[in-house]
């Protein structure tokens, strides 16, 4: 009984979200669609409460090592839960403006967050798979949430079918690993891999990496990303681009640097190859895009390649760099999608990049915010994106992968073209003759401006608290 109480105490964040999600489901079912705003507000409160429980809760292992609460999990869950709360705020405003008020939206995000929390705390292959499937099932529904939209339905179907393929790869890799190591626990697998680096175990590891690469939309497993980014509702894409990617990146770090630390030379080669392909696909694929959300899809592919360099380093510094990069990436992405949600004409969202021409005349503050975010993701010093890339490239060079880091720098230069094109359109191109933009919703403007403003104080105060937190998470995890 004491062990059960301890286990429940450690897993309180996920339990809170699961039970709270079911309660919200009952509220919505009895109150109907008119309860959408209430359910959204309660869901945000629930995620904030889960964050507080995570930060103040104890550390340790539960369920025979299947669940791990350590500094890495605490850091990741704080980012995941708060990101999910921001996505609910954006989604609530979007539903109000489009008159698609459905109480299921925030509930699905809450349940997905529970799965992402499990991913961040996975200590064996079973909890790894359960966490992935729990969050994926909710995301499949969210991708097709606007069911009257043909593109949204297509996006949901593509995501579901390709997600099933990735789940098959995960299960096949996990079965090979279990067959050779004789255990599901990461600690036992690490002990076996250190002394028996068999070919079968490495094959299982490669399949596992391929399945996980799908979840972060790393090339060449990115085929779902552009279509889902284009077809899914904008607040849903904002969620896809942030919290699930943080959860999956932390899961990859925990799996590789934890269970397979002894095989670093083998899996690092796979990650470096995936990173290089992601650089090329993300940088060059984005050059031909005309839809803003498809452009952000290719940008995310390239940026995931940068983050993987931190994990490929196989060191504590590498994990720290990955956490720092992903946190700053999440903030920038929310800024982009909040701006997209704030721009519309005649009640229709602005999605084409060409529609941004001359935006400075109508929305000077929004134009400035989008300029700052574009330069930040580009990696222009001294904005926040520069420090994220500085961290991952530095970790890669420190581990001896300076040539790969140089390739990443070249990809950044290529990708800079489409960010600079956006800036040119807004500031220098004449505005087309069309209806003026609609009044921007307050929640989207607030999040957009806050994300853009974060890039400036980061140089002075940001790194003084964010970098030590990432360092503590990486050191507590014990990579390298």
UniProtKB/TrEMBL annotation:
<dbReference type="GO" id="GO:0042773">
    <property type="term" value="P:ATP synthesis coupled electron transport"/>
</dbReference>
<feature type="transmembrane region" description="Helical">
    <location>
        <begin position="321"/>
        <end position="344"/>
    </location>
</feature>
<feature type="transmembrane region" description="Helical">
    <location>
        <begin position="38"/>
        <end position="60"/>
    </location>
</feature>
<feature type="transmembrane region" description="Helical">
    <location>
        <begin position="365"/>
        <end position="387"/>
    </location>
</feature>
<keyword id="KW-0520">NAD</keyword>
<feature type="transmembrane region" description="Helical">
    <location>
        <begin position="399"/>
        <end position="420"/>
    </location>
</feature>
<keyword id="KW-0874">Quinone</keyword>
<feature type="transmembrane region" description="Helical">
    <location>
        <begin position="126"/>
        <end position="145"/>
    </location>
</feature>
<feature type="transmembrane region" description="Helical">
    <location>
        <begin position="12"/>
        <end position="31"/>
    </location>
</feature>
<feature type="transmembrane region" description="Helical">
    <location>
        <begin position="103"/>
        <end position="120"/>
    </location>
</feature>
<feature type="transmembrane region" description="Helical">
    <location>
        <begin position="447"/>
        <end position="466"/>
    </location>
</feature>
<dbReference type="GO" id="GO:0008137">
    <property type="term" value="F:NADH dehydrogenase (ubiquinone) activity"/>
</dbReference>
<feature type="transmembrane region" description="Helical">
    <location>
        <begin position="295"/>
        <end position="315"/>
    </location>
</feature>
<dbReference type="GO" id="GO:0012505">
    <property type="term" value="C:endomembrane system"/>
</dbReference>
<dbReference type="GO" id="GO:0048038">
    <property type="term" value="F:quinone binding"/>
</dbReference>
<dbReference type="GO" id="GO:0050136">
    <property type="term" value="F:NADH dehydrogenase (quinone) (non-electrogenic) activity"/>
</dbReference>
<comment type="function">
    <text>NDH-1 shuttles electrons from NADH, via FMN and iron-sulfur (Fe-S) centers, to quinones in the respiratory chain. The immediate electron acceptor for the enzyme in this species is believed to be ubiquinone. Couples the redox reaction to proton translocation (for every two electrons transferred, four hydrogen ions are translocated across the cytoplasmic membrane), and thus conserves the redox energy in a proton gradient.</text>
</comment>
<keyword id="KW-1278">Translocase</keyword>
<feature type="transmembrane region" description="Helical">
    <location>
        <begin position="236"/>
        <end position="256"/>
    </location>
</feature>
<feature type="transmembrane region" description="Helical">
    <location>
        <begin position="72"/>
        <end position="91"/>
    </location>
</feature>
<keyword id="KW-1003">Cell membrane</keyword>
<keyword id="KW-0472">Membrane</keyword>
<comment type="similarity">
    <text>Belongs to the complex I subunit 2 family.</text>
</comment>
<dbReference type="InterPro" id="IPR010096">
    <property type="entry name" value="NADH-Q_OxRdtase_suN/2"/>
</dbReference>
<dbReference type="Pfam" id="PF00361">
    <property type="entry name" value="Proton_antipo_M"/>
</dbReference>
<protein>
    <recommendedName>
        <fullName>NADH-quinone oxidoreductase subunit N</fullName>
        <ecNumber>7.1.1.-</ecNumber>
    </recommendedName>
</protein>
<dbReference type="GO" id="GO:0005886">
    <property type="term" value="C:plasma membrane"/>
</dbReference>
<dbReference type="InterPro" id="IPR001750">
    <property type="entry name" value="ND/Mrp_TM"/>
</dbReference>
<feature type="transmembrane region" description="Helical">
    <location>
        <begin position="157"/>
        <end position="181"/>
    </location>
</feature>
<keyword id="KW-1133">Transmembrane helix</keyword>
<feature type="domain" description="NADH:quinone oxidoreductase/Mrp antiporter transmembrane">
    <location>
        <begin position="122"/>
        <end position="413"/>
    </location>
</feature>
<feature type="transmembrane region" description="Helical">
    <location>
        <begin position="268"/>
        <end position="288"/>
    </location>
</feature>
<comment type="subunit">
    <text>NDH-1 is composed of 14 different subunits. Subunits NuoA, H, J, K, L, M, N constitute the membrane sector of the complex.</text>
</comment>
<keyword id="KW-0812">Transmembrane</keyword>
<keyword id="KW-0830">Ubiquinone</keyword>
<feature type="transmembrane region" description="Helical">
    <location>
        <begin position="201"/>
        <end position="224"/>
    </location>
</feature>
<keyword id="KW-0813">Transport</keyword>
């Amino acid at each position: 009984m004491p062990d059960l109480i301890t286990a429940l105490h450690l897993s309180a964040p996920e339990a809170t979200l699961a039970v709270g999600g079911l309660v919200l489901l009952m509220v919505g079912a009895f109150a109907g669609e008119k309860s959408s705003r209430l359910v959204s507000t309660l869901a945000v409160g629930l995620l904030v409460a889960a964050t507080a429980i995570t930060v103040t809760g104890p550390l340790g292992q539960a369920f025979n090592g299947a669940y791990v609460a350590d500094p890495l999990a605490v850091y990741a869950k704080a980012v995941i839960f708060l990101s999910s709360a921001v996505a609910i705020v954006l989604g609530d405003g979007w539903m109000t403006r489009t008159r698609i008020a459905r109480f299921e939206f925030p509930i699905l995000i809450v349940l997905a967050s529970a799965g992402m929390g499990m991913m961040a705390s996975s200590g064996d292959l079973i909890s790894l798979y359960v966490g992935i499937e729990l969050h994926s099932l909710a995301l499949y529904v969210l991708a097709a949430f606007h069911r009257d939209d043909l593109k949204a339905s297509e996006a949901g179907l593509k995501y579901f079918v390709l997600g099933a393929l990735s789940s098959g790869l995960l299960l096949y890799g996990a079965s090979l690993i279990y067959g050779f190591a004789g255990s599901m626990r990461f600690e036992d697998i690490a002990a076996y891999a250190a002394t028996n680096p068999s070919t079968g175990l490495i094959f299982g590891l490669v399949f596992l990496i391929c399945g996980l690469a799908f979840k972060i939309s790393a090339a060449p497993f990115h085929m779902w990303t552009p279509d889902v980014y284009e077809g899914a509702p904008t607040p849903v894409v904002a969620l896809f681009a942030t919290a699930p990617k943080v959860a999956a990146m932390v899961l990859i770090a925990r799996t590789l640097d934890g269970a397979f630390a002894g095989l670093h030379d083998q899996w690092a080669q796979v990650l470096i190859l995936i990173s290089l392909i992601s650089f090329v696909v993300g940088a060059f694929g984005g050059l031909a895009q005309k839809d803003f959300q498809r452009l952000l899809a290719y940008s995310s592919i390239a940026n995931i390649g940068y983050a993987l360099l931190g994990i490929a380093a196989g060191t504590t510094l590498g994990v720290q760099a990955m956490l720092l990069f992903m946190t700053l990436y999440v903030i920038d992405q929310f800024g982009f999608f909040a701006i997209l949600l704030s721009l519309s004409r005649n009640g229709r969202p602005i999605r084409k990049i060409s529609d941004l021409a001359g935006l400075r005349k109508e929305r000077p503050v929004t134009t400035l915010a989008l300029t700052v975010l574009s330069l930040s993701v580009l990696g222009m010093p001294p904005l926040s994106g520069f420090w994220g890339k500085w961290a991952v490239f530095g970790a890669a060079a420190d581990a001896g992968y300076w040539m790969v880091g140089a390739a990443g720098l070249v990809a950044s230069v290529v990708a800079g073209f489409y960010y600079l094109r956006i800036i040119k359109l807004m500031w220098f191109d004449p505005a087309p003759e069309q209806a003026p933009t609609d009044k921007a919703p307050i929640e989207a403007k607030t999040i957009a401006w806050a994300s853009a403003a974060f890039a400036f104080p980061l140089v002075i105060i940001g790194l003084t608290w964010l970098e030590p937190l990432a360092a503590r998470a990486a050191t507590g995890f014990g990579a390298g």
